């Protein structure tokens, strides 16, 4: 096969939103790939995700932006208050609030089932001249040309890749430092509510509210969805002591089991006149509540040899939340919003779509390279 027609086979480890998004792109571009996940089934977990300008062009290229809009609700403003319900900040922007499980479903619908291999924990991998080989927990091996670690914040692909880089003296010192676990996030989604129970739940646009506590390192965000449900997320910023207490949680699986005691701790958080978080928790099916750790690190090294890291395996968040909790001034909010909305990358090997921003997008080096 000539160099021009050769298509590398991609092995993707992890069927989270990052792995599924990449698989959808490769499917669209007719590039061979296979997905592997240690989970026995892909559970629709989580609350709402905001789909902003950074992913809108990609979803348009994949032909799913209309589906996402149909499942989502336009979000044009947010209201930030303290627990006394005094308004701290009101911010305007333009994103789509979509239930995380709905987004997972849309991405999954683009990927043929036979390319997804569940119950396959990847134990090790190695590079073999022309390609890569992975060994999975069922003692099988799989071969490809490029390995993508989309295996989440505790990425074993990243750990193995970094060990190799370190041995060869190529790991930057910043990537040798352990990452900080800065934030715990508890998420859930109520069953459909009516206007009398939760005002604005039937509005055409998403009602996004954030309550920041004065005396506890907690904040809570609520979004209304197209299905008339309320997605809620509580963030607890950890200090050293609370960080140590949560040490065991890191090594456990995500799921409803881990969430119950945190639900009890945050029940009395005041969201509106006559409404506390406990009221929403009680209207949420137990099996969709989950507890997630957010960390604070952007790794510098994301590619080495034939191995690439994407998603939370490479980029961990928490920093912005920490600033929010310290009452970020409006000017800074605007700066973040403008920076984030200027970042509108397109998949350089698919036909490009019209950029719909009012200001030009930030430079995308990969686009330049592919076009050359
Ligand atoms: C349960 C959960 C709920 C969330 N809810 C929200 C939300 O409501 N709103 C929001 O904005 N963000 C939410 N987030 C955060 C956001 O969705 C993440 O930033 C995003 O999921 C990151 O995607 P990812 O694909 O990089 O990693 P993950 O979603 O963590 O996916 C990694 C995948 O890799 C698999 N894996 C790990 N190790 C191996 C291995 N050795 N072999 C094979 N497979 C492996 C895991 O089983 C997992 O399926 C949530 C995250 C999680 C995990």
UniProtKB/TrEMBL annotation:
Residue span, FAD-binding domain: 9-171
GO molecular function: FAD binding; monooxygenase activity
Alphabetic keyword roster: FAD, Flavoprotein, Oxidoreductase
Pfam families given in the database record: FAD_binding_3 (PF01494)
Highest taxon above the source species: Eukaryota
InterPro entries hit by this protein: FAD-bd, FAD/NAD-bd_sf, FAD_mOase_fung
Family per similarity comment: Belongs to the paxM FAD-dependent monooxygenase family.
Name of the featured protein: FAD-binding domain-containing protein
Organism whose genome encodes this protein: Modicella reniformis
